[in-house]
Amino acid sequence: MKVMNILHDSVVDGPGLRTVIFFAGCPHRCNGCHNPQSWNMKNGTDLTVEDIMAEVSSNPLANVTFSGGDPFIQAKKIVPLAKEIKKLGKNIWIYTGYTMEELQSSKDVYKHQLLSLCDVLVDGPFILELRDLSLPYRGSSNQRIIELH
User: Where is the Radical SAM core domain (predicted)?
Assistant: First the structure.
C-alpha cells in the first residue's frame, strides 16, 4: 500500500482517539484540498499490512480512520488491512471523495468489500464554496457522515 502518513491520537477524524492512515492517490483533486500532495501515488511510501498493523496495535485505545488521498483508490490492497483491524475489534471510518451511491454502483468488487468493512463513511468531494468549519468531522456541507454498522 502507498501511505503518506500515519497519525496517532487524532480527535478530528472521528469520535474519540483515532489512528489515521493517510493513503496516497486521489482522482478527485478538490479545490482547497488540505492534503494535495496525496493526489500522486508516487508520493507515498510502500507499507505492508504488517507495517501498518504494528502502528495500529501500538495504541490499543484508538480506533482507525482511513483518509488520503482516497482510500478506495487502493481498495484491493486495503481490504486485507481492514480485515485485520476488524479482528482487533476496532471501528473504521473512511473518508472518500466518492459518494456512497458511486461506491455502491461501482463494478469494482474490492470497493464493495472495503465498504462492507467500514463502520462510518464520510462521503463526497470537498467543495471549497461549501466549506463549513462548524461541521464536526467533515470539511464541507455536501459531505455526509453515513453510519453503516
Answer: 12-149
